[in-house]
Amino acid sequence: MIRAIIFDLDGTLVHTEILKAESYAQAIQILTKGSVSQKMVLDSFGKYVGLSRAGVVNGLFEEYKKPLSEHLDGLDSEAVQERIITSRIAIYHQMLNDKTLLSSHFCKYNMELLRSVHKDNFKTVVATMSHRFEADMVIEAMGIRGKLDIILTSVDILQGKPHPEIYLKVKEMLKMEPEECLVIEDSLHGIKAGLAAGMNVFAVTNPLTRSEVHAANVLAPSFIIDDPKELIHRVYQFIKESR
């Protein structure tokens, strides 16, 4: 029987993955003086969705190592990655402080599911690879803090998704068995983390994650939702069948 619904944050409750992708794209374009275009970064970003900040930066650095090194001559790889992080965070925080921009990226139907399961007395959790400060900004903007029993971020774990640590920690805090937990994710890394923790997982895909999630073939088609309008019905149907 399902007793808890665990939501990823970025790309699941709010399309901050799109904003994150744009912030990295802008930062790398600026640092390489345009030799790497924003489109190039955006086109390749899907493979990094769901990773920790360190994982994303390392992946982008390896992909664009040559132009980054050429334009940041004299800096070692660690310093170059730090420059990417610093530049990208400044851009991203400007985006998060733009309430109109942020609210336009809320995932309406996924948030509706959260409100519904909270009202129906399921335990509700956010488990995200975002840093605490950024997650708090987004959760406050969405007005859902009072509907969450637990919020876990990257600072609460040692190993990021696709490692299952964050979901295993949720299970321990809730004092539940894995099969009593249902995870709502958008990215392949997040899906793998939930499955590795032994939990039930639904994928609600978006343009950044859709092709990779389908191609990976780690979830049965019935657990992949491309149209978020179907989410509430599909989740409640599964909960009913699992009783």
TrEMBL record:
<dbReference type="InterPro" id="IPR023214">
    <property type="entry name" value="HAD_sf"/>
</dbReference>
<dbReference type="InterPro" id="IPR006439">
    <property type="entry name" value="HAD-SF_hydro_IA"/>
</dbReference>
<comment type="similarity">
    <text>Belongs to the HAD-like hydrolase superfamily. CbbY/CbbZ/Gph/YieH family.</text>
</comment>
<keyword id="KW-0479">Metal-binding</keyword>
<dbReference type="InterPro" id="IPR051600">
    <property type="entry name" value="Beta-PGM-like"/>
</dbReference>
<protein>
    <submittedName>
        <fullName>Haloacid dehalogenase superfamily, subfamily IA, variant 3 with third motif having DD or ED</fullName>
    </submittedName>
</protein>
<dbReference type="Pfam" id="PF13419">
    <property type="entry name" value="HAD_2"/>
</dbReference>
<keyword id="KW-0460">Magnesium</keyword>
<dbReference type="GO" id="GO:0046872">
    <property type="term" value="F:metal ion binding"/>
</dbReference>
<dbReference type="InterPro" id="IPR023198">
    <property type="entry name" value="PGP-like_dom2"/>
</dbReference>
<dbReference type="GO" id="GO:0003824">
    <property type="term" value="F:catalytic activity"/>
</dbReference>
<dbReference type="InterPro" id="IPR036412">
    <property type="entry name" value="HAD-like_sf"/>
</dbReference>
<dbReference type="InterPro" id="IPR041492">
    <property type="entry name" value="HAD_2"/>
</dbReference>
<keyword id="KW-0119">Carbohydrate metabolism</keyword>
